[in-house]
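To the team - zinc ion complex, inputs and output below.
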Amino acid sequence: MSRFRPPGDCPVCGSHVPAGRKSCPDCGASAEAGWNEDAAYDGVDLPDESFDYNAYLEREFGPPKVRMNRRTLWVVTAIVLFFALGAGWWWF
Ligand SMILES: [Zn+2]
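Output:
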């Protein structure tokens, strides 16, 4: 739950937390309380997670627009072939 570990900057108030401390000397946030990280950074964490998910999709499958266009192209090609074959049966 608590990703922050001293030494480093307190995720709640930004003060430096020395190594070995289990709580912030400035605001009192502690590892047991999760450094209040979820409450303080809830609005920041959610967009970051969705951005990472989109970046993962782009790495695996390419940009969404290209993926959409390629799929649309295949659908159009299938429809054209279907009607071309259908017209061929009618003509012959
Ligand atoms: Zn603090």
